[in-house]
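Figure 2 data, in text form.
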Amino acid sequence: MVKINLPYHRTHIQLELEDRYLNGLLVSQAGNYQAAQSETELVEAALDDPIGSARLEELISNKRNMVIITSDHTRPMPSHLTLPLLLDRIRRANPRIQVKIIVSTGTHRASTGEEMITKYGATIVREEEIIMHDARRAEDMASVGTLGNGFTAEVNKAILQTEFLLAEGFIEPHFFAGFSGGRKSVFPGVASQESIMANHCSKYIASPYARAGILENNPIHMEATEIARLARLAFILNVALDQNKKIIRAFAGHYNAAHQAGCRFVKELSQVKAAPADIVITTNGGYPLDQNIYQAVKSMTTAEATCKKGGVIIVAAACSDGHGGEDFYKTFKNAASAKEVTQQILSRDRRETIAEQWESQILARILEKHRVILVSEKSVQGIVRDMHMEWAADIDEALTLARQYTDPEAGVTVIPDGISVIVN
């Protein structure tokens, strides 16, 4: 009997499986990576030796003001550790500089006061000027310029009106942008809803290059990188995390060169070989990424990459915050099938993209090939079924149900943290 701990909210649930049923256990090597320094030392070392850039202290020495982009409550970036280190360096190098912090919510809801304190620490929340980006506030947006493909993107004015723009974030596989971090802090992090939707159009999402671990020829990544350049993103601090959300490596410097170096490191640790199975069990890595169904789609794509056609995907995600997007939810509730959702989305032009369409498109793609069973809080049971998935109260119930749809002797592949791996 094999016992596997699956991250769930702020704790774990245990899966017990007879050895003969286990087709594969797909895990990132990040969990085994032994960092030679503490988290603080890793960040300091990266800032001391930036990639493709002069040191931060030199870059801001004569600046009057700057903006730091940071991530919101849905991301495990340890800003309570990194922001104080950044601010200390900045103010020692230039005591007079005015610093604003903008939270890159993308199209997510605003962080609550409690979430901000948990994320950044009480001192920063109390003493720093923090802007909560709202992609829907047209008056806060301005054009960053016209891209090579003719698309005009809009971002928050605050990042265009500053003398120096810095972004912090973390790098992990991303289900359609290739990897998180780097340019994503700017776009979609602090972009207008209209611009985000145009970038996340059905044509781009349908690209075979819009997958986890792929940057080359990825249309979403390439457009976001060009927007970051036009917005004059001058410096980044990105980190790689282990399964406990602890920093195991840090990368600082040029927005693209440092990010590419980080992506190479994360890819080396996170690549795993597919283990095809009729049943695939995964999670969203626990809190904060398993707060809603919208986020849970990310781990479903990892399971999709190793689940046999017609097989069952089981995802354990608390989803205590519900569906995570009203338009995302209604798209499925109002459709007769996943195929109908796909047809509706593919019929739309880039400028006709609706909110959360990309998530709907990806979930529909998965549901056309697989049954999905969600192990989550009972409060979302009805929502799960409205969205053409099935609900289970615990992992044993989900596995029993999956075997009814496949085979009592069906093999199982387990991906304890579906966010952390790239299946090849």
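Caption note: The longest strand covers residues 307-316.
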